[in-house]
Amino acid sequence: MKLNIKQAYMAMFKLLDGCYWNTRNDDLGAMLGFMNTEIFEGDEPVDMAVFDTWEDCTSNVTNNKLLSSKQIFCSVIAFLKIYKDEFDFNLQWLIDKLEAEGESEKWAECVGKAYDMH
Question: In percent, how much of the chain has pLDDT > 70?
Answer without folding.
Answer: 92
